[in-house]
Amino acid sequence: MESRDDAGAEREGAAPAPESSGAASPAAEPTTGPASGETPAVAGPPDSPDTTRRVDTAEAARGDAAQPRHAAFDPRAGAAPTGRVPGPPPGPAPADRAPVSGRFTTPGRGAGAPSNGVPNTYDLSSAQLLRPSKRPPQTGWRRALFVGSGGLVNPGESVGDAARRELIARVNQPLHGCYKIAMLSLKGGVGKTTMTTTLGSTFASLRGDRVIAVDANPDRGTLSQKIPLETTATVRHLLRDANRVRRYSDVRAYTSQGPSRLEILASEQDPAVSEAFSEVDYRRTVTLLEHFYNVVLTDCGTGLMHSAMKGVLDVADSLLIVSSASIDGARSASATLDWLDAHGYRDLVSRSVAVINYVRRSSGNVDLDRVSDHFAARCRAVVRLPFDPHLEEGAEIELDKLASRTRAALLELAATVADDFGRAGSRVRRPVLPR
């Protein structure tokens, strides 16, 4: 039968085997030394793999981390080996026991977004909080089904609705400063004034900023007849009272506003007086208007040599070259581009948009694809506008009365023009020569 000293030495020399019983074994009594004739047991180094294991720092923070296993340590008894005090070993912690970087960093207080694909519970953005849903349809049977079901059945928007929404987003591109557009054509009767009103109305109805159209036609322009007339004041009266204009409400007394929020500054109706509208007068007008408006459209006359035209071309950011769907209309529009190239406005031509107006479903023998290709080689873009009975009337223009095809073409035109808004004011302006 073995003595107590032999049993204690045997317990210190080897780890105990697991017991089948659930009762805790009594703690070993301290011994004074090994029995005679036996080699004393040597405990492993404090940080050796036999005596310690890595402790998870998150478990340690919660207080439920498992205790380090030492030799002859029974976790069920909760007693430490004889002659040893449990605790961290002296000296710096080894590398495999160093805390994991970022383990205690709270998301939203310096920690970045989780990279393991787990949703960030601290993110309160709309994308995280709102359930994904389909956009309600705007047209067609989808709209009828959505309205008829009281919104319970939502088939989603159609391809056409999605395309229209993208065009509207392009029209609403940010615009810093004032963007000036000049409408040109050497041929009369191609719908230049109508184009000025419809394009300006499209911008004004979709954008939140102010849009104004200026009649710079020296031959008794008809721009003021395209919207309800609110005042008889003209651009000549505005220039006369320019020193008293301090705020937007002061300018508003000289303009008329249509249902789309487009404002029009009319020209003088007396041809003898309107001839006196010079380059300096136009520059003064635009300099005044650009403090209160973000988009300024100028309806020019058919003549390119009158005095105001030089001022129009020098301050414009882009041009709209208007052509009819006929051979003589296309030739006149091409001649307009030739004149601009020959007089030093090649940079302006490259930023211009050609508009083929009054396109009918059957244009006779005119190959409009070839006409479009001709202008596409010289201009930034080409847009066709269909024939519309409401525009043919020549009366006041209301966008709601236009055919759906016409409204879609105008939206495409406005988006094409707005694609150049980022370059507003980037042209090198010609200096005003003293007279």
Automatic annotation (TrEMBL):
Task: Return one GO MF term.
Answer: ATP binding
Q: Where is the AAA domain?
A: 180-325
What domain of life is recorded for the organism? Bacteria
Question: Matching InterPro entries, A to Z?
Answer: AAA_dom, P-loop_NTPase, ParA/MinD_ATPase
Q: Where is the composition biased (Low complexity)?
A: 14-37, 75-85
Q: Where is the composition biased (Basic and acidic residues)?
A: 1-13, 50-62
Matching entries from PANTHER family are given as: ESX-1 SECRETION-ASSOCIATED PROTEIN ESPI, SEPTUM SITE-DETERMINING PROTEIN MIND HOMOLOG, CHLOROPLASTIC-RELATED
Q: What is this protein called?
A: MinD-like ATPase involved in chromosome partitioning or flagellar assembly
Organism of origin? Actinomycetospora succinea
